[in-house]
Structure formats: C-alpha cells, structure tokens
Amino acid sequence: MGIIAKQSIKGSVYTYVGAVIGFANTVLLMPKLFSTEQVGLVNILVAIAIIYTQIASLGFPNVLSRVFPYFRNNTNGHNGMFALGMAVTLVGFLLTLGIFYVSKNYIVTSNAEKSGLLVENLHFIPQLILFTAFFTFLDSYAKALFDSVSGTALREVYSRILITGSILIFGADLVDFEEFVFIYILAYNSPAVILTLILMWRKQFKFTLPDKKLIAEHKREIIRVALYGIMSGFAGTAIVNIDTYMVTQYLGLSEAGIYAISFYFGTLIGLPARSLRKIGSIVLSEAWKRNDIPEIQKIYEKSTVTQLIIGLYLFLGIWANIDNIFSIIPDYAAGRYVIFFIGLGYVLDMAGGLSAMIMLTSRFYNLFSLLSLINVVFIAVSNMIFIPIFGLKGAAIASGLTLFVFSIIRFVFLNRKFGLQPYSFKHLKIIAFSAIIYLVIYFIPDISNSFIDIFVKGSLISLFFLIFVYNSKVSEDINSGIDAIKSKFFKK
Hints:
Elements: H1 3-33, H2 36-56, H3 60-71, H4 81-111, H5 116-120, H6 125-144, H7 149-171, H8 177-201, H9 212-251, H10 253-268, H11 271-290, H12 293-319, H13 322-328, H14 336-350, H15 355-361, H16 365-390, H17 392-418, H18 425-442, H19 450-472, H20 476-489
Helix pairs in contact: 1-7, 1-11, 2-4, 2-6, 2-9, 2-10, 3-4, 3-6, 3-9, 3-11, 4-6, 6-7, 6-8, 7-8, 9-10, 9-16, 9-17, 10-14, 11-12, 11-15, 12-14, 12-18, 12-19, 13-19, 14-17, 15-16, 15-17, 16-17, 18-19
C-alpha cells in the first residue's frame, strides 16, 4: 500500500472519529441546548474567520505544495522554508487585520437588523484569524514533510472533544452563552498550539535562514504560486462558506443555524476527500517534477474509483435515514433538501478524484486559481438567484450545482491538455450497484425507534457495499486495506 493510501486511510479514520464527535455536538447536543440563532452564530463566526484566513496565508501553503520538493533537505532545516513561512504568515495576518477593520462597518450595517447577535460578537474574529492562519501554515509544513495526519487529528478530533466539553459546561449552566462562545473559540484555536509543540518535539520547528541562492532561483515561481494561491485559497474557502454568510444576510441568523446543521450532514460525504487531497498534493508535486504522466494517470484513476465508492456509500447511508434524522432534530426539518443537494454535489465532486490537486500542482496552477475565482462569482450569483426563490434549499442547490459544474470543467481540461481519462466500466458498476442497494433499503420496513432503524439500515448498507467492493475488485486500494486488516486480525 502506497503512502497516499496509508495516510489517506489514517486521515480518514481520524476524520470520521471526529465526524462521530461532531455528530454528537452538532446533531445531538447543540440543537437541544441552543437556539437556532445561537447555533448560527458560532458557525458564521468561524466561516467569516476562515475566509479572511485565506488572505492572511498569502498563498504560502500553495508554495509549500508546489516548491518544497526543491528545498527539501532535513540536515539544514529545508533551506529555511519554515522561517520564511512563519514570517509570511505574520505579515499576512497583520495585513488581514487591517482589511477586517476596514470592512467591519459593512458587516455591522448589513447584519444589524436580522443578525444582531453576530454584530455583538465580531470581536472574536481577529483571534480566530490569527490562530487559524498559523495552523494552516503549520499543517501545510507538516504535510510537506509527508505528515498529513497530525493536523487532521488535531482539527477533527482533539478540538471537537474540547468543543464537546464546552457544550456540556453550558448545558450544565456553569457558564452563560457569552462565556460559552469564548471557551468555544479557545477550543477551536487549540490545534495551532498543539501542532507547534509537536513540530518542536520533532525538532522540525527550525528558524534556519532561507537559502538566498535557492530563493533567487525559484523567486519568480514562489511569487506566482503565492499570488495565485491567494486567489485559489480564498476562492476555495469562499465556495464552502459564502452560502452560510448569504443565508445569514438574506434570511437571518436563525435560518443560518438550520442551514449549518443540515449542511453538516452533506459535508460528511466529502470528508475522506480532504485527507486524500492533503497527502496527494505532495505526491503529485513529486510526480510533476519528474513529468511522470503515467504515474499521475494511475493516481487519478484510483482516486476517482475510491472516492466515488466512499461518496455514494455515505450519501446512501444519510439519505436512507433522512426521516430518522429529522425525527431526532424536528426543529431543523426545513433543511431536508439542503442535505440532499449538498450531499449529491459532494458525490459528484468526489467522482472527480484528485483532479483539482492534479491541476493545482501542474504548470497550469495559475489557470486553476483564475477558475476558482470564477467559481466564487458563480456560486455568489447562484445564491442571489436561488435563495430568494427557494430559501434554504436554494443555497444548497447553488452549492451543489457549483461543485458539479467545476468538476466537469476540471475533467475536460485535464483530458484536453494531458490526455488524462480516469473513467471506465468500473464507475458504472459502482453507480448501478449503489442504486440497487438504495432500492433494497427503501423497501425494508421502518423500525419505530429512530436510532435502531439508523443502525439497522446503516449496517445493511455497509455490509452490501463491503461485499460488492471486495468481490468485484473495483478498488485496488480498498481491497489492499481490507486484506491488511484481515491479515492483522485473522492470522492463521
């Protein structure tokens, strides 16, 4: 099993342990203890901070993905790339802080009427930007050293455990809501501190002066990658978070709370792709350095198969239990089709495998960045069209449509420029079998207890997928993973 598969599997395990904790927080605890407006607040604070963070990073995570292979040298601190990244991130934060305070009046005036609670808590955003920016850099640096797991474990599991604690403290009436928000922000920011300590313990926290010769040699590319990285990073984050902000503006903070809870279910489907993309970007950079097109084609093909299987499995698992979900959180039932359209959009995006990373790590990364900006305009306009017509469902349609359209564009581009074509009869078999599984589950009688019904349907879907995937051998990586587990736990 290759490094992509190993780290992707480890990252996915942490991601889904975090997803279970996140499910408890988002679905079982917060809807019971907080109003929809309060739920909307904590989500919109993070969404706004993440968008600003992409400016604060000044594109340096993309520089690490693209250029780090040329600086890699453990004996001399990788020629000062760490120190350069820390300096760039600090400058970026100070710049972003100024932008935030300039734009603060607009945020206040545009949300004063429908989202007064947001206006009261804007003071938390600068510290969120600071810690998120440095975590983003440190995570990218660890990833460049072939560790895509530590950052995932900290963000997905550790911080969510702390958030669970803050929710329980609020539920026990030990703190009021304002104090809860402060503790929540501390929990969200903690991964940056822990990752710093991890890098220091590994002796990778080195402030070696940058190698002037190497910097001069790659100066033009570093600047170009950083500039386009700012555009693509901002665009990628805006695509994920802009709908939450626009729902807040058009419909109010309470509706944003409903949207955030429903959106969470849809994004569960796309979680495995995040782990795959993190380590995949570094391996693809090395392949582009060798101009190894056959290796890139192999990675591309495997990623589309694996991600389509996982995406459809999770989508069916959620949609087959949609009635059970809203019997548990009935106040959020207006988000039913938010889950459907967001989930379907992520399935279609995952079917594109590592197409985004292949394009981003190629010599056409600049075009990818421009395409990402067009993507932001597309989703913003789509939201302006669909939210007034369809409400919450309109924002989900806009997001799902955006994911689908730009996945198709990436496929066409890679096919025309490099002759890459990852699809085969395997993909049709996966889709056909998924449809059959859904029909079987659909006609199984419901069990009155929602939790038992979820367990039974989820178990059947898991069993059917496991049997199909392993026996059909459609995914080499998944079969290798299953064989590794079998050999470890069922030794003769």
